Amino acid sequence: MHLTLSFIHIQHYIPVKGDFSDLAETVRHVIDPKNSEQIQQIIKNGQQFCRTKLTMEQYTVDMLWTLLSYAELLRSSPDFYDTWKKNKSAYEMPQLEMKPWKPRVPEAVSSTQ
Predict the structure, then answer these.
(1) How confident is the model at residue 6 (pLDDT cuts 50, 70, 90)?
(2) What DSSP state is assigned to residue 111?
(3) Which structural domain, as residue segments, surrounds residue 35?
(4) Is the pTM of this model over 0.90?
(5) What share of the chain is helix, strand, coil (3-state, %, to 5)?
(6) Residue 88 within any structural domain of the chain
């Protein structure tokens, strides 16, 4: 299961456009007292979804179904292994030069601005 496919807008969350062009209107709707019951119900639904779907047990079930689906794909595709072996980028990791991680230190703010 892909979690984003399971969320239902206006039932589990309040949608906002990707460019946030409707954010102000959405916030006004959420904080309007006359919408309080609807918003409280959406909050309860979202919390219940998280309690039931975002658990280790559910993750395990979802992972099992994913692996079983993948096994079925491999079983039903007789040329999969041969095709996969011909494409080395599918199973070999290129050597990448990685530099040690260094945390960024915020620059000091000048007091003479």
Answers:
(1) confident
(2) S
(3) 3-78
(4) no
(5) 55, 0, 40
(6) no
